[in-house]
């Protein structure tokens, strides 16, 4: 959906959206399509890219599970022909994929699994208020996935260390009020608006810049990298101005920033793997590049990690 299409039904303009967010278009699922559909397609392609159809665990990062109960991951696993494997959801909004990567890495390093399919998928437009010009301008639907496998710490592709964090005192900055146990156990009826996603855009902007920059700095320290060592920075694609501010805080050359927000918007848990896939497909990330990943999201949550890009290409 282009900015022009949005502007036909809401009080906004292509010019406002492009200058304030850097977004030109985003993808919106058709009615009836849910997160599992996106997750299955991304999972199939990641498995194909890995050269093998199997995995022994699946971690799905999502903010928009198909249903509040059960988790969406087991159904996705079955639809991928992986019935029987460990499968669970991770809920950390836009940080979800980095948290899920950490969970997958932990499963492997603890010896619980040897191959883990990690998917970030969100049909985020399904929780947006169609009349809210701020959120509809920013968010889009999307998914991406990777396969992690056991290997040696010095191999290209070895992932980590991780920096993960949260601040629940600021949980209300982005929220869907209804649909959970708090609303269900209260007596009153729920207003329709409570089922929609709300955010305090300005406060979220400030927090996103601060938290991604701080988390990136911590993970660089842990890994012994300097900022000049980072060949490519894949940050959560929340807003082009947020990306530029994080790069400025880190004193990172902006030409090393991965950007695909103009064509997909903010795809929440899908954001980091989609940006990664697009950058590899475009030849912007190449084997041997030292890559920093960082994300920020509701909760609040944040997380970062590093890896040296291995010789592998995405399947679309
Ligand atoms: N089109 C036109 N005007 C819009 C608009 C739109 N799509 N969305 C908001 N506006 C208006 C506001 O209503 C406001 O009008 P007012 O001054 O009459 O009240 C004006 O633009 C300025 O709003 P403001 O919130 O100050 O703009 P901003 O420059 O902070 O940009 C966001 C708003 C939402 C784009 C920006 O704050 C942002 O990106 N925040 C982070 C959001 C995010 O990343 N969320 C996900 C977390 S991972």
TrEMBL record:
Family of the protein in this entry: Belongs to the thiolase-like superfamily. FabH family.
Lineage: Bacteria, Bacillati, Actinomycetota, Actinomycetes, Kitasatosporales
Main subcellular localisation: cytoplasm
Beta-ketoacyl-[acyl-carrier-protein] synthase III N-terminal domain span: 88-168
Pathway: Lipid metabolism; fatty acid biosynthesis
Keyword list, A-Z: Acyltransferase, Cytoplasm, Fatty acid biosynthesis, Fatty acid metabolism, Lipid biosynthesis, Lipid metabolism, Multifunctional enzyme, Transferase
This protein's name: Beta-ketoacyl-[acyl-carrier-protein] synthase III
Catalytic activity: malonyl-[ACP] + acetyl-CoA + H(+) = 3-oxobutanoyl-[ACP] + CO2 + CoA
Classification via InterPro entries: ACP_syn_III_C, ACP_syn_III_N, FabH, Thiolase-like
Designated gene of the protein: fabH
């Amino acid at each position: 959906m282009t900015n022009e299409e949005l502007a036909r039904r809401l009080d906004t303009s292509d010019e406002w959206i492009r200058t304030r967010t850097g977004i030109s278009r985003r993808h919106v699922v058709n009615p009836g399509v849910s997160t599992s559909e996106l997750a299955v397609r991304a999972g199939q392609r990641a498995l194909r890219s890995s050269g093998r159809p199997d995995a022994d665990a699946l971690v799905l990062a999502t903010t928009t599970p198909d249903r509040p109960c059960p988790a969406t991951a087991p159904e996705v696993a079955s639809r991928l022909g992986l019935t029987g494997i460990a499968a669970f959801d991770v809920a950390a909004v836009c940080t979800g994929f980095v948290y899920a990567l950490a969970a997958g890495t932990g499963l492997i390093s603890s010896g619980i699994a040897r191959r883990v399919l990690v998917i970030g998928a969100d049909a985020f437009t399904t929780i947006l208020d169609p009349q809210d010009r701020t959120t509809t301008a920013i968010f889009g639907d999307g998914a991406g996935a990777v396969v992690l496998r056991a290997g040696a710490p010095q191999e290209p592709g070895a992932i980590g260390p991780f920096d993960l964090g949260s601040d629940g005192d600021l949980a209300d900055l982005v929220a869907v009020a209804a649909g959970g146990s708090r609303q269900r156990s209260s007596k009153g009826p729920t207003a329709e608006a409570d089922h929609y996603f709300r955010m305090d855009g300005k406060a979220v902007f400030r927090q996103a810049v601060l938290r991604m920059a701080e988390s990136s700095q911590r993970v660089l320290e842990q890994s012994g990298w300097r900022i000049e060592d980072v060949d490519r920075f894949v940050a959560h694609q929340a807003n082009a101005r947020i990306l530029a501010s994080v790069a400025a805080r880190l004193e990172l050359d902006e030409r090393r920033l991965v950007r695909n927000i103009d064509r997909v918007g903010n795809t929440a848990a899908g954001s980091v793997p989609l940006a990664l896939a697009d950058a590899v497909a475009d030849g912007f990330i190449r084997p041997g590049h030292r890559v920093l990943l960082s994300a920020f999201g509701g909760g609040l949550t944040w997380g970062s990690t590093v890896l040296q890009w291995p010789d592998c290409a995405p399947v679309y």
